[in-house]
Design goal:
The protein has about 475 residues and is an alpha/beta fold. The protein has a single domain, classed as Alkaline Phosphatase, subunit A (3-Layer(aba) Sandwich). About 30% of the residues lie in helices and about 20% in strands. The chain has 15 helices and 18 strands. The strands form four sheets. Strands 1, 2, 4, 5, 6, 7, 10, 11 and 12 form a nine-stranded mixed sheet that branches. A five-stranded antiparallel sheet has the order 13-14-15-16-17, covered by helices on one side. Strand 14 and strand 15 form a beta hairpin. Helix 8 packs parallel to helix 10. The longest helix is centred in the middle third of the chain and has 32 residues. It is globular. It starts with a helix and ends in a 6-residue tail after the last helix.
Length: about 475
């Protein structure tokens, strides 16, 4: 299907109930030949320890690489070995990724809240500098209703089912429950959303030879998110027929107990989804090379969170702040601007990716938020950064705040008032917790963590409210996303 960008954008604005009015204006007259194109790619549900740059080898296909192209970009750029997501689920983590703010700071900690209209995104920065700007998303939680469309000349869904008028109205709580149900079912079972997203991106860059001018492109790739239904040829590469016939949706059938063998098979399907996604990114780069601009592109690739495979008794995400969910890959490639082959060990947050890309592109830095460029880590010294993580799920009585500095990590449970500390160097699997009360003032690390998190709580922005129908609430509950 040939996408119609202005139409889909107008539907996104309908879902937001107004607000800014981005237009497909073709960038701006302020662009210069010195401005380099920038691409920000988020791969949903991608945990670092299942990717090639982080040393992973698939169990059933040890000679296959899950992400050979990301590995290539990393070998030619910078790999952040200890990058953390800001939240263990799609909505708040992406809001942090695009605003340079942690979740408490921007306030979109629940799907009930939309971004303050006075807060700009990284797309606004590039749009104001005269760049063409486009975003392509592939999951309901990046819909414009939460404010993700700001600063984009074009902001469209890759999958067709997210771009209809009915989808926009349903996500804005008009009560079309069957539409919401079908939309979420499609998002979990569609086996080729990556191809659709990349097709949109290439078409947009092709129109009016837009690739010849400065552009900022945000791509959200969804396939590694459960359920695990990779294309058949990828399934057979990572889970040979003789190794089992497990079905991808069995992963989230929580009433079904999984054997270790079945769990391993589901991991293989997850790996297949990851490789499919990596191949789609490589396809985009092949087109950039054909246009002769691949070496000009500044690109940052990361994830919003990972998935749990019962390491701590849970499946999926949106439940804990353990490393299997929070440790994400992060790679930056910018030929001529970065020391190729650099691997940084410092603890960092994917909240800082956008500010880093902005600096590399010569954009002015944000001064009104906590996100900072990480360029000092490769220019001066590889020094650990203080990282904050957040999870709020009131109906399940879950409110967790996480902190990491180097290999020291702490998780605070606001309901139980328990303060848990991990030494990730000695205990990378977080199996040996040290528990205490958050009122304990005798532990220097605890005192430092509490002081940092208390300070981070003081910077809060007002948020908008997103209305939601009872039917939509019911359907999201089935997907594990219930909130108050």
């Amino acid at each position: 299907m040939t996408p119609t960008f202005p139409l889909l954008l107008s539907l996104g604005l309908l879902a937001c109930g107004g607000g800014e009015t981005p237009t497909d204006s073709g960038g701006g007259s302020t662009s210069t030949a010195k401005q380099r194109p920038v691409i920000l790619i988020s791969i949903d549900s991608l945990r670092a320890d299942h990717t090639t740059p982080y040393g992973y080898r698939p169990q059933f296909a040890p000679n296959e690489a899950t992400m050979p192209f990301l590995d290539k970009l990393g070998r030619e750029g910078v790999v952040f070995e200890n990058a953390e997501a800001t939240a263990p689920w799609t909505l708040p983590s992406h809001m942090s990724m695009l605003t340079g703010m942690h979740p408490v700071e921007h306030g979109v900690r629940s799907r009930k809240f939309s971004l303050n209209p006075n807060i700009d995104l990284v797309s606004n920065v590039f749009q104001d500098a005269g760049y063409h700007t486009a975003g392509v998303f592939s999951a309901p939680f990046l819909h414009p209703v939460w404010g993700f469309h700001r600063g984009f000349d074009v902001y469209v869904p890759g999958p067709a089912y997210l771009g209809t008028k009915e989808a926009a109205e349903a996500l804005a709580a008009s009560g079309k429950g069957e539409t919401v149900e079908a939309m979420h079912h499609s998002s979990h079972t569609d086996d080729q959303t990556g191809e659709q997203v990349i097709d949109h991106a290439i078409q947009w860059l092709s129109q009016n030879d837009r690739h010849e001018e400065p552009f900022f492109l945000f791509l959200h790739l969804w396939d590694p998110h459960y359920d695990y239904f990779p294309p058949q040829d990828y399934r057979e590469r990572f889970l040979p027929p003789g190794e089992g016939q497990v079905v991808g949706d069995e992963y989230m059938k929580l009433d079904r107990e999984l054997s270790q063998q079945e769990l391993d098979q589901l991991k293989a399907l997850y790996d297949a989804e990851i490789r499919y996604t990596d191949d789609q990114i490589a396809r985009l780069w092949q087109q950039l090379e054909e246009w002769g601009i691949a070496d000009d592109v500044i690109v940052g690739i990361t994830s919003d969170h990972g998935d749990e495979f019962l390491e701590h008794g849970e499946r999926g995400h949106h439940l804990t702040l353990y490393e299997e969910v929070m440790h994400v890959p992060m790679v930056i490639n910018a030929p001529g601007l970065l020391p190729a082959g650099t691997r940084l060990k410092a603890s960092v947050s994917n909240r800082d990716l956008a500010p880093t890309l902005m600096e590399l592109a010569g954009m002015p830095a944000w001064t009104d938020r906590s996100g900072r460029s990480l360029s000092t880590l490769w220019r001066d010294q590889d020094v650990d950064q203080e990282v904050v993580m957040d999870l709020l799920r009131p109906t399940r009585k879950i409110e967790l705040r996480g902190y990491r500095h180097g290999f020291e990590k702490a998780i605070l449970n606001s309901y139980s008032r328990v303060f848990t500390v991990f030494d990730l160097e000695q205990d990378p699997g977080e199996q040996q917790p040290k528990n205490g009360s958050i009122t304990d003032k005798t532990d220097p690390f605890a005192v430092r963590v509490l002081a940092f998190l208390e300070a981070s709580q003081k910077v809060r922005h007002k948020v908008g409210m997103v209305k939601e129908s009872t039917v939509m609430t019911s359907q999201l509950d089935e997907l594990g996303y219930t909130e108050d």
